[in-house]
């Protein structure tokens, strides 16, 4: 596919990919460290659950399983990794306007739908690549860490495998969001800052709002609605075990696919109509 | 490519703009514009700043959607061309490459998308004399080098139609001369060359035909000589003399028309310079200057677009 080759070449011939790669690897190392410490606290049973509300205590106990913690470590780096993939998807689009290469791109390929499709595929491929590299690092690291601690990582069990594979899905889908986002906000700086703020602050804020609404209205299902926040959906999707009080993993996957389809479709429609001046 | 004989097998390469209009919020940038551009000739597309030249070219290339009308190249809309880069090459703005990408990689990206072989990138770069700077990043290019890279990109598919928007911008005199020879050479091979510009003296040297627009409307179209010759006044004779009144009277007797400019210089029409000299000698009038003045493209252009170049 010529257009995808061209898009991949666009990324390879600038320094974007290795800057992002370094960023993803550094944050991966940090995330792995934090998750390892969490696993240690959780699995060595050092928590004091007295005074913790019953439903929360139940959740904490559910996370204190080898499967949950192993899945969490195998998928380390997702939190920031997804952000990098999102930004890469944004840049794949906004670069064309920032560097005024959109003219050349659309002169070469007047079929704009094809161009957007190629960008979606490219962002998805880069997401998959980021997943591959981070997973190839976290698998041996987790196995070594669990081995040293004397725990079973359950590597090869369906729960763990599912978490690792759904993590791939998350990386691919976030690349697609990035492209849709970049089309909506054409300014490179504007799109980047909005995405980072929404991702880092928006997630927390949305979860807080859902929590407060639930406390206020005392409707349990409201806290489950938090899954409509994309990053919450990603986290849910890759949890190794089903957590009490949370929707099942497939709901997270469905939400993310929904967002990817919507952003991809809207992005394509806008790009088809836009005047390139 | 251009050093060989280009074969006009891919169609006529005629550009036809018909009733083209573009309405922006408050401005009708292009207003019911129609003209044709013929293969084998360089056509200058002229107009004051803001006349709608760039908008017209972008509508021709499917980058901007027209409000009304059509624009075709060889009978097809740009979006319907099976292999656009092999049919049409366009140079639209100088700064259209990623600043961190090398010149050669910029061309390779386009080759990849268009399904052209990679070596075309090297060939096109050599064609515009940019091979030594192939591996330099775009941000280190001078304006002239950027223009050459743009032309290289347009030549990748060895197209039959070339469309250039203000290609002389940023070129030094040597660069402008190179471009003139380059474009004339392409037209001589039977290709269609459409060049927008506001550098009128350059256009007079380069163009065979001109299309003049102002305020989004067609003002005049035709071969350069014809457009210049169509002006009300043809050739005039400029005369400076301390005895203007006597000479004017003598010239009137010979049915010449005489205008006087603000410095008292006479502008004589209807008779040629030797005749004016003879009349002056017969009338014993002293002459300080006797010059034939031919209207040039610039004069004609300014006259044609007078009052229509306002900011809209």
UniProtKB/TrEMBL annotation, chain A:
It comes from the Bacteria. GO terms for cellular component: plasma membrane. This is ABC transporter permease. The keyword Oxidoreductase does not apply. The chain crosses the membrane at residues 79-99, 120-148, 168-185, 197-217, 250-271. The keyword Transmembrane helix applies. GO terms for molecular function: ABC-type transporter activity. Keywords: Membrane, Transmembrane, Transmembrane helix. It comes from Micromonospora sicca.
Automatic annotation (TrEMBL), chain B:
Residues 15-240 form the ABC transporter domain. Keywords: ATP-binding, Nucleotide-binding, Transport. Gene3D superfamilies: P-loop containing nucleotide triphosphate hydrolases. GO terms for molecular function: ATP binding; ATP hydrolysis activity. The keyword Mitochondrion does not apply. SUPFAM superfamilies: P-loop containing nucleoside triphosphate hydrolases (SSF52540). InterPro entries: AAA+_ATPase (IPR003593), ABC_transporter-like_ATP-bd (IPR003439), ABC_transporter-like_CS (IPR017871), P-loop_NTPase (IPR027417). PROSITE patterns: ABC_TRANSPORTER_1, ABC_TRANSPORTER_2. Belongs to the ABC transporter superfamily. This is ABC transporter ATP-binding protein.
């Amino acid at each position: 596919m010529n257009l995808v080759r061209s898009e991949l070449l666009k990324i390879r011939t600038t320094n974007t990919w290795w800057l992002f790669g370094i960023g993803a690897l550094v944050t991966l190392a940090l995330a792995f460290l934090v998750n390892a410490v969490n696993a240690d606290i959780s699995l060595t049973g050092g928590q004091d659950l007295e005074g913790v509300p019953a439903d929360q205590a139940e959740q904490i106990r559910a996370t204190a399983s080898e499967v949950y913690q192993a899945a969490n470590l195998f998928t380390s780096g997702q939190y920031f990794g997804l952000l990098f993939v999102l930004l890469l998807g944004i840049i794949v689009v906004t670069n064309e306007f920032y560097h005024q290469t959109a003219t050349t791109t659309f002169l070469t390929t007047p079929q704009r739908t094809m161009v957007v499709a190629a960008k979606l595929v490219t962002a998805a491929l880069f997401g998959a690549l980021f997943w591959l590299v981070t997973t190839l690092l976290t698998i041996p690291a987790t196995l070594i860490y669990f081995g040293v601690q004397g725990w079973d990582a359950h590597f090869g069990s369906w729960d763990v495998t599912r978490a690792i594979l759904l993590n791939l899905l998350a990386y691919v889908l976030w690349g697609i969001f990035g492209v849709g986002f970049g089309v909506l906000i054409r300014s490179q700086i504007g799109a980047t800052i909005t995405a980072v703020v929404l991702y880092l602050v928006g997630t927390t804020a949305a979860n807080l709002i859902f929590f407060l609404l639930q406390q206020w209205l005392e409707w349990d299902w409201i806290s489950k609605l938090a899954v409509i926040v994309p990053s919450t959906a990603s986290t849910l999707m890759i949890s190794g075990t089903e957590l009490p009080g949370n929707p099942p993993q497939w709901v997270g996957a469905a939400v993310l696919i929904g967002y990817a389809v919507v952003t991809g479709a809207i992005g394509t429609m806008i790009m088809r109509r836009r005047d390139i001046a | 490519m251009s050093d060989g004989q280009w074969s006009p097998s891919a169609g006529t390469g005629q550009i036809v703009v018909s009733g083209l209009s573009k309405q922006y919020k408050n401005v009708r940038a292009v207003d019911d514009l129609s003209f044709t551009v013929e293969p084998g000739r360089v056509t200058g597309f002229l107009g004051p700043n803001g006349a709608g030249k760039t908008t017209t070219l972008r509508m021709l290339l499917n980058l901007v959607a027209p409000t009304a009308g059509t624009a075709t190249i060889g009978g097809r809309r740009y979006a319907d061309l099976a292999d656009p880069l092999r049919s049409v090459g366009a140079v639209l703005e100088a700064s259209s490459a990623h600043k961190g990408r090398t010149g050669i990689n910029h061309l390779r990206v386009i080759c990849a998308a268009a399904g052209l072989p990679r070596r075309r990138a090297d060939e096109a770069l050599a064609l515009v004399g940019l091979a030594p700077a192939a591996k330099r990043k775009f941000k280190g290019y001078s304006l002239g080098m950027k223009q050459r890279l743009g032309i290289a990109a347009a030549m990748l598919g060895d197209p039959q139609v070339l469309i250039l928007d203000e290609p002389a911008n940023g070129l030094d005199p040597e660069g402008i001369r190179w471009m003139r020879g380059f474009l004339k050479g392409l037209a001589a091979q039977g290709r269609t060359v459409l060049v927008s510009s506001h550098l009128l003296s350059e256009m007079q040297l380069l163009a065979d035909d001109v299309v003049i627009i102002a305020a989004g409307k067609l003002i005049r179209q035709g071969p350069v000589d014809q457009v210049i010759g169509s002006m009300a006044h043809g050739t005039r004779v400029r005369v400076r003399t301390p005895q203007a009144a006597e000479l004017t009277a003598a010239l009137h007797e010979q049915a010449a028309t005489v205008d006087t400019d603000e410095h008292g210089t006479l502008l004589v029409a209807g008779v040629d310079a030797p005749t004016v000299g003879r009349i002056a000698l017969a009338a014993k009038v002293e002459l300080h200057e006797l010059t034939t003045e031919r209207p040039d493209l610039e004069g004609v252009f300014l006259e044609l677009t007078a009052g229509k170049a306002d900011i809209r």
